[in-house]
What does this fold into?
Amino acid sequence: MKIEKIETFTNEFISFVRVTSDDGSEGWGQVAPYCADITAEVLHRQVAPYVLGMDCFDIDEMLDLVRDREHKFPGAYLRRAMGGVDTALWDMRGKLEARPVCELIGGTTGKIRAYASSMKRDVTPAAEADRFLKLRDKHGFDAFKFRIGAEVGRNRDEWPGRTEEIVPLIRKSLGGEATLLVDANSCYSPDKAIEVGKMLEDHGISHYEEPCPYWEFDQTRQVTEALDIDVTGGEQDCMLANWKGMIDGRIVDVLQPDICYLGGIARTLRVAKMAEAAGMPITPHAANLSMVTIFTMHLLRAIPNAGKYLEFSIEGLDYYPWQQGLFVNDPYVISDGHATVTDAPGWGIEISPDWLSKSQYKVSAR
It folds into this structure.
């Protein structure tokens, strides 16, 4: 089977990808969200010319070929575009074999513990605690992540004193049984990150994400070595050489690849295997309810070094209005704090025809 056609259905935030083989088989995937219209153009100009006509299931080879042919473009947009083809081809294979993707990559269907992941900083500590309590009571979440510092904040807080207020307040509100995680989004210098980390340890926080600028591996390593808390990171990294350096250098305790940013399932499996050999867990980044969380659910049900939980965004249409109407049926039902990978073929979802009809369409074909 050869790749015959690649179609994109796009707006500024989302670009769904349909790949069709020469025998008419189809699969659906997605490029990474945000500026997806730019990524879709990269897909048509810098990915499609190489993969059209290739074997549909020689995914690793086609992704390496794109990397090599476009070696002057080693960064994020090319990998984001590659992931659109990768994820569509896994869906195609799953539908042909009548199996979910998680089974294709060695796993089983079933439940995954999820943590409620807040994306907000423009929320008071009291309001955040109230949100978490309501989610606990409604959906059974027992793990929660919230934001500290300011995004790439150069040691500044979102507003003075917010971090020092929110950490003990969330702990007090949710009690000692709740698992708490924080994300600093590259806010701190090493000294400040360690100072904040000691405070996090005092309040039983178990996960300290991206404490220093993520590209400064040596800075993050200093924090990892100084603290007992799990220091985590990796969501932004798309180069496999960087991943090898992060793993070999023990830059963090827990690795967080984003399947869409990294370039799809096949490349993420390579990272997972490197991490497994090093005895390191994988807890992927999945910060919205596009297809990326579905991809992550399937991955976590398959890899032997899956981390403790699935990141599950709690932000609704007030924060991410572009999430509205993406799918025919909601694939993201949380019950007793768990999401479920079903036995439906491929990714097990149907993209809304109405959404597709309103998108910008483009096709590349042999």
Summary: The mean pLDDT is 98. The radius of gyration is 20 Å. Residues 76-97 form the longest helix (22 residues).
